[in-house]
Amino acid sequence: MSKLSRRRFLYTAGATTAGTILLNACTNPPNPNQQQTTTTASPAVNVGGGEGPEVTTARLGYIPIFESTPIIIAKVKGFFDKYGMTDVQVVKQASWGALRDNVIIGSQGGGLDAAQFQMPMPYFLNEGLITADKSKLPMYVLLQTSTQGNGIAIAGKHSGKNMHLNLSQVKSYFTQLKGGGTPFTAAYTFPGANQELWIRYWLAAGGIDPDADVKLIAVPPPQTVANMKTGTMDGFSTGDPWPYRIVQENIGFMATLTAQIWPAHPEEYFAVRADWADQYPKATKAIMKALMEAQQWVDDPANRDEAIQILSGREYFNLAADILTPPMKGQYNLGDGQPAINDINMGPLFWKDPRGSVSYPYKSHDAWFLTENIRWGMLPLDTDVKGWIDKVNREDLWREAAKEMGIADADIPKETTRGVETFFDGITFDANDPTAYLKSLQIKKVSV
Ligand code: CA
After folding, report:
1. 3-147+266-316+351-437 to CATH, choices 3.40.640.10, 3.90.1280.10, 3.40.930.10, 3.40.190.10
2. 3-state DSSP percent of the chain in helix, strand and coil, to 5
3. CA of 190 to the centre of ligand 1 (A)
4. How far is ligand 1, taken at its centre, from the CA of residue 49, in Å?
5. How far is the CA of 44 from the centre of ligand 1 (A)?
């Protein structure tokens, strides 16, 4: 990693963790903002995989957005208990920076063993790019928690400018904003991860250079909404239920859903500290089985209303159920004169999507997230993408867990790649040839 991009990580990562622990993470007490949920123990049953897990406890972190649904459902519906993990704690995190810090601390220090992650955060930890002392924290990516369910929100003052999915006719407006000394300013919540990458992709596809034509900044999640309301922020990339709330609460409109940018795109993941998984391999697979069963359960439209009731609970999202219902069912009013969307396949999906498995962690998707970091100069061109993925992505464990719990062969992908991916602007990504992808892009920082 270049000096410049390393500084950028340090600087922006700091910005995301205001008010939470950042430096000396190993000696500080756990984040006081985190809330803990206690377990109602029920009898453990062994389901698949021979003897029970080595331990019955684990501390799992989540951020209260739809991507955390399988973690919360597995807890509340008793799936962790079913697979012998009777003392799992699911712990709400105040920000991505706090989540990262708590995984670095580990449960022995009051932190976390595993957590929900944006990509490629587990890789950044694995390579020591986002730890305070640059030490490497080996991580395993175990499964994808959900696809889609994210979008790009725009402040209401930009209504009527056609700032929608395709920006190719709107470039002059961005130029005008910049020329007037108020460049379009957009926020993301963790550098180099999903939300920054969605904004960058969307802008660049419309001919707008995210490094030259606009201002991108890292902002803690609660501030993004506050800044949109006061008009000091023009846009941000966010997960459900925020895309729905932005329009509903008259904060602004949705330029696009990520499902429109890249249908069935990879979104967030569940990853574990490698030292924990290596010490407790059966417990690791037990957690995976519980999450996979939760994913199947919540993917069933018949269970969505119950899932909404659970998520809306005070100890989880702490939001009225009627805020969660439309996006959980793929109902979006994008605002700014755009047609409404009412299609469950455009909302968050948890087990299967039109392209195959949601839960299975395709190596080809990890390759896109790393390649996109190379595109924007956040990782060097000579990054050993395949080598990194082979260390961190544990699709082999997913296959084992799936077989042990009796998942149908048809639901277990045959390949570690999902094949060629196609974006809304016609650009294609083939994990077997990321250089061809980089060459095909007009706007990028890397020279290929
Ligand atoms: Ca997300």
Report:
1. 3.40.190.10
2. 40, 15, 45
3. 11
4. 32
5. 32
Residue 160 alpha carbon to ligand 1 centre in Å: 27
Which CATH architecture best describes the domain 150-264?
A: 3-Layer(aba) Sandwich (3.40)
Distance from Cα 110 to the centre of ligand 1, integer Å: 25
CA of 148 from ligand 1 middle (Å) equals 8
Domain limits, the chain: 3-147+266-316+351-437, 150-264
Write out the H or E segment, with its range, that includes residue 421: strand 421-422
- Ligand 1 centre from 111 Cα, in Å? 22
- pLDDT digit string (tens) for 74-129? 999 999 999 999 999 999 999 999 999 999 999 999 999 999 999 999 999 999 99
- 205-264 pLDDT, tens digit per residue, is 999 999 999 999 988 766 778 888 888 899 999 888 887 888 988 989 999 999 999 999
- Give DSSP secondary structure letters for 267-294: EEEEEEEHHHHHH-HHHHHHHHHHHHHH
CA of 149 to the centre of ligand 1 (A): 7
Is 72 within 8 Å of 62 (Cβ atoms)? yes
Q: Please state, in angstroms and rounded to a whole number, the distance separating the CA atoms of residues 265 and 373.
A: 16
